[in-house]
Amino acid sequence: MYLYNSATHKKEEFKTHTSGHVEMYTCGPTVYHFAHIGNLRSYIMEDVLEKFLRYEGYDVNRVMNITDVGHLASDADTGEDKMLKGAKREHKSVMEIAQFYTDAFFEDCKKLNIKRPDVVEPATNCIDDYIKIVSSLIDKGYAYLAGGNVYFDTSKLPRYYIFNDHDEEDLAVGVREGVEEDTNKRNKNDFVLWFTKSKFEDQALKWDSPWGVGYPGWHIECTGISLKHNGEYLDLHCGGVDNAFPHHTNEIAQSESYLGHPWCPQWFHVHHLNTTSGKMSKSKGEFLTVSLLEEKGYDPLSYRFFCLQSHYRKALVFSWENLTNAQGAYQKLIKKIAALNPKDGEADAAVVEEYKQKFLQQVGNDLNTSMGVTALYDALKAKTNDATKLAILGSFDEVLSLSLLEKAAALREKESQSTSAAGGYTITGEGDPAIDALVLQRYEAKKAKNFAEADRIRDELKSQGIEITDTKEGASWRRV
Ligand code: AMP
Ligand code: ZN
Question: Which residue is closest in CA terms to ligand 1's atom 5?
Fold first, then answer.
């Protein structure tokens, strides 16, 4: 596959350290509130990427952290810990908040068909790992103690800015408007590895450390968790584009300084979901959740379909109108698939493979998911039998995860029951319109007292292995 790499600013052929195996890391949610559909856009696209790599034949180890400590309100290491803010808002403990919103996050993921990563690790589980890394960074001269906190010294690196070509002034988070500068820092972009002192004294979670009782900074979490579960050589690191600086930049700085060798060559960043008033963000307080979409009558998978229609490297504007259009297109697609007859022939493996190769090429061009959606319509138009079309659609859905075959089968079943319900005669069967039609003909023959015809139809069905049972509402049939 070819993937845009934010670290080199180029689209490149995807490579791994070990042939056929991908070590993948994803920055997980900060669990002080519900995930909004912007966060979930990032997780949907990362999910498609993971599934695409598996579809290509890679074996993937995907690791995700859960940020339950250390993510402060400002990226410049100031302000309150977001978790504490959530706990105060809801008059609960930090750990209660963390558990509640972690569960809520995975429930949302389930509704959006986002697979749970192989490893999910709460940041508070790995304090010893961070302490080990921070101690080593101090020993090697990359970190210093000031005002009770441990800072990473960015001036020690020949190349600190990885992801963009902006100058230091543009990037300096410490001097952003409205953000108070931390006077302990030797350089503007130095960042905290371990806090013992901060402006607020009521931090709920604290641990002992060689530098006093305190808690880890947000960036060190991802380094610690990735090194623990992915090993020293990571192949692919993912996150929303707002994480590129300073979070990912700092992850690289500390990981490579600690390891003494390059860490992760490929970086995948998903661009933002915006509303007409700008980036959707939790801290703004007003944001859209999966539950709200459901309350308004949307199928969460319509939102997944909406995300797949556009490229991950372009900002996506959300509006109810756009979502309504996506839902309409998604439902129409399901209807078209439901109209295919699963009993129409046998799936032709060679044709399925031919379509798979084309899909791999098209979607493998920098995760072009809109081409993936187009491929679904191409499959519907293929000059082949319905069983093969369904096999192709099922194959593509291993990557797109739109529950296409399940939803189409449910619709087929529902339609076969309701069509057969004409005149109060309900047929329940295994969702085959041709059989339903014969059962109905038999009923009509009986009604017209044409018993010879009714028996003939019964025999014909029997010869096809169908057994009919007359019921109170009509008839039910099954294959025996
Ligand atoms: P957080 O829970 O704030 O740590 O964010 C979780 C993930 O969502 C991170 O990868 C962010 O970069 C990403 N993210 C935050 N806001 C948006 C947005 N509006 N659109 C897309 N991704 C976002
Ligand atoms: Zn991270």
Answer: 29
pTM of the model: 0.86
Beta-sheet strand order (sheet of 316-317): 278-279, 273-275, 316-317
CA atoms 194, 198, 200, 201: torsion sign: positive
Instruction: Read off the pLDDT of residues 96-155 as tens digits, 9 standing for 90 and up.
Output: 999 999 999 999 999 999 999 999 999 999 999 999 999 999 999 999 999 989 999 999
Q: Report the CATH fold assignment for 278-413.
A: Four Helix Bundle (Hemerythrin (Met), subunit A) (1.20.120)
C-beta 243 within 6 A of ligand 1: yes
Distance (Å) from CA 59 to ligand 1 centroid: 26
- Domain boundaries of the chain, sorted by first residue: 16-270, 278-413, 419-479
* Gap from CA of 117 to ligand 2 centroid (Å): 15
What is the distance between the alpha carbons of residues 281 and 285, in angstroms, rounded to a whole number? 7
d(CA 344, CA 355): 19
Distance 219 CA to ligand 2 centre (A): 6
**Alpha carbon of 39 to ligand 1 centroid (Å):** 4
CA gap 91, 89 in Å, rounded: 6
Say yes or no: CB of residue 279 within 6 Å of ligand 1. yes
CB-ligand 1 contact for 412 (6 Å cutoff): no
> How far is 84 from 90, CA to CA, in rounded Å?
10
CATH, domain range 16-270: 3.40.50.620
Q: Is 30 in the pocket of ligand 1 (CB under 6 A)?
A: yes
Residue 360: exposed, middle, or buried by beta-carbon count in 10 A (0-12, 13-18, 19+)?
A: middle
**Alpha-carbon distances of 422 from 164, 194, 415, 440, rounded to whole Å:** 65, 71, 11, 9
How far out from the chain centre does Cα 49 lie? 9
